[in-house]
């Protein structure tokens, strides 16, 4: 069982001490085997069934983690205090520096085994280490290459494989999600979850299933958006909008708000009917072929329209679409097109700030805590634009959340496949959100919204939540603040 690191006790202090001048992994003197023994004690899920399979050498020649990028790490440890898994476990091999060390070992002599994969699997891909690194180490490229190697070369246990297949055969497909939403509605309407809890049955279900149940969003009526929406007044831009998968089915109101705001700011908005998943979930999980196919299809779909920009309102999707140029670099048919496509991709708040506001903002006297989604703040460097979009609304009190750089534990599919670590991070984030004392929470990623809501619920709390663009939309439409606070 993981030792709790609540930021006040010894483990956290130890983590901080270790992070400052802790030396390189070589100084620490941990080989992979020794590190694994420590991880067995310190890392959640130590008792899980592993495959026992080993691949040697660890990596094949198709895009192994780049040695030149690995060598840029100077082992300074500045990234350690911002790494959520290091903060939780205090384990060198669950830090960015440790994982880079393991990648290097994989390139040299170590096989890819259960222990090494465990340390890679526990990484949330939050990229807080990229923000913190003074040497500019491109950890995002390293972990992406490593995850693809793991998915291709490592044989997961049958249970793990089946669970992941279930996720990847459901979430990227809006039509399948809609089918799943129907029984979910009944489940919620008849309060089956609370009955199972009261009967003690829920506690006997596997942790991953319980985590999924806790994260279930309310199934709303889907708001359809037209394929083309004209601008209000003079046309300033013609933009496309990614409607997403989970976003389209469970957060369609965010898409509808995005279209209204863009149109109010003078954009003609196109929502291509044939669009599918952008591939973000698959990319972050190392499912390379699948993610490339999603990327190609997305490029094909949006290229048919003559667009100035492609607007995204989900942080994880935006960060992946900005990477298409890199992901498709080997594909002669798509490499150049992918670069051009990526250059057009903008997060909605990034785009609104570049465009400059012209529509009138009505006052919204409300205090909001703004939560930085990792794939917006760390992966795309977008921090000021959502805050600025909120502050442009008269009466808005935007508050910061303590430990803003630490991930909430959502991280794509992380909170489903690593429920214990995700739960600890979620609870930590929920407490920090409550400490901000705001009336509502604002964040730009559906995963964060679900994770923080579930974590607040565990603490017996709840609060209104919205995407920044929903708040801007409420202001443009002159909605009363009470309506906003009902979300
Ligand atoms: S991506 Fe996040 S969890 Fe992974 S090593 Fe970097 S800071 Fe740690
Ligand atoms: S990844 Fe960057 S911050 Fe972390 S140890 Fe290496 S050089 Fe230092």
Write structural notes for this entry:
The protein has helices at residues 10-19, 25-28, 32-42, 67-70, 84-89, 96-108, 114-122, 128-132, 139-153, 158-168, 174-189, 192-198, 207-215, 246-250, 252-264, 280-284, 288-303, 315-321, 324-327, 335-344, 348-355, 374-377, 384-391, 414-417, 419-435, 446-458, 468-476, 481-484; strands at residues 228-229, 237-241, 267-270, 309-312, 345-347, 366-371, 396-399, 440-443, 465-466. By secondary structure, the chain is an alpha/beta fold. It folds into 4 domains: 10-156, Fumarate Reductase Iron-sulfur Protein, Chain B, domain 2 (Orthogonal Bundle); 160-215, no CATH class; 228-353, Rossmann fold (3-Layer(aba) Sandwich), CATH 3.40.50; 361-484, Rossmann fold (3-Layer(aba) Sandwich). α15 (252-264) packs across α27, α21 (348-355) crosses α23 (384-391) and α23 packs parallel to α27 (468-476). Helices cover 51% and strands 7% of the residues. The chain has a 5-stranded mixed beta sheet. A 4-stranded parallel beta sheet has the order 7-6-8-9, with helices on both faces. The radius of gyration is 22 Å and the shape is globular. α26 (446-458) links the parallel β8 (440-443) and β9 (465-466). It is built from 28 helices and 9 strands. It starts with 9 loop residues before the first helix and ends with a helix.
């Amino acid at each position: 069982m993981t030792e709790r690191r609540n930021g006040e006790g010894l483990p956290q202090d130890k983590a901080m001490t270790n992070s400052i001048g802790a030396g390189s992994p070589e100084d620490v003197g941990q080989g992979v085997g020794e590190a694994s023994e420590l991880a067995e004690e310190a890392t959640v899920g130590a008792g899980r069934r592993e495959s026992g399979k080993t691949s040697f050498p660890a990596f094949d020649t198709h895009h192994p983690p780049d040695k030149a990028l690995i060598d840029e790490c100077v082992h300074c440890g500045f990234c350690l205090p911002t790494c959520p898994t290091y903060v939780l476990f205090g384990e060198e091999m669950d830090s960015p520096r440790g994982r880079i060390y393991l990648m290097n070992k994989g390139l040299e002599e170590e096989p890819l085994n259960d222990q090494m994969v465990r340390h890679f699997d526990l990484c949330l891909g939050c990229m807080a280490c990229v923000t913190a690194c003074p040497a500019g180490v491109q950890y995002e490229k390293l972990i992406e290459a490593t995850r693809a190697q793991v998915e291709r070369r490592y044989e997961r246990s049958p249970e793990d494989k089946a669970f992941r297949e279930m996720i990847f055969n459901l979430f990227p497909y809006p039509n399948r999600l809609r089918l799943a939403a129907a029984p979910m509605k009944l489940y919620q309407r008849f309060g089956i979850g609370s009955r199972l809890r009261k009967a003690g049955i829920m506690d006997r279900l596997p942790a991953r299933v319980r985590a999924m149940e806790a994260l279930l969003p309310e199934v709303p009526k889907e708001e359809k958006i037209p394929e083309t929406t004209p601008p209000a007044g003079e046309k300033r831009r013609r933009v496309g909008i990614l409607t997403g998968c989970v976003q389209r089915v469970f957060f369609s109101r965010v898409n509808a708000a995005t279209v209204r705001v863009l149109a109010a700011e003078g954009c003609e908005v196109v929502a291509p009917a044939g669009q599918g998943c952008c591939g973000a979930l698959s990319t972050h999980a190392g499912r390379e072929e699948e993610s490339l196919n999603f990327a190609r299809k997305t490029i094909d779909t949006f290229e048919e329209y003559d667009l100035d920009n492609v607007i995204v309102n989900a942080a994880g999707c935006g960060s992946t679409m900005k990477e298409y140029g890199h992901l498709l670099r080997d594909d002669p048919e798509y490499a150049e097109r992918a670069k051009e496509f990526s250059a057009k991709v903008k997060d909605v708040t990034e785009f609104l700030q570049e465009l400059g506001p012209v529509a009138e903002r009505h006052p919204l006297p409300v205090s909001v805590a703004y939560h930085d989604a990792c794939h917006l703040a760390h992966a795309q460097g977008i921090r000021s634009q959502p805050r600025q979009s909120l502050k442009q609304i008269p009466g808005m009190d935007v508050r910061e959340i303590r430990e803003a750089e630490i991930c909430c534990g959502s991280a794509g599919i992380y909170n489903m496949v690593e429920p214990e670590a995700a739960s600890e991070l979620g609870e930590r984030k929920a407490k920090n959100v409550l400490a901000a004392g705001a009336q509502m929470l604002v964040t730009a990623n559906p995963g964060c919204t679900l994770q923080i809501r579930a974590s607040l619920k565990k603490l017996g709390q709840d609060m209104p939540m919205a995407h920044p663009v929903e708040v801007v939309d409420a202001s443009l439409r002159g909605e009363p603040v009470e309506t906003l606070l009902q979300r």
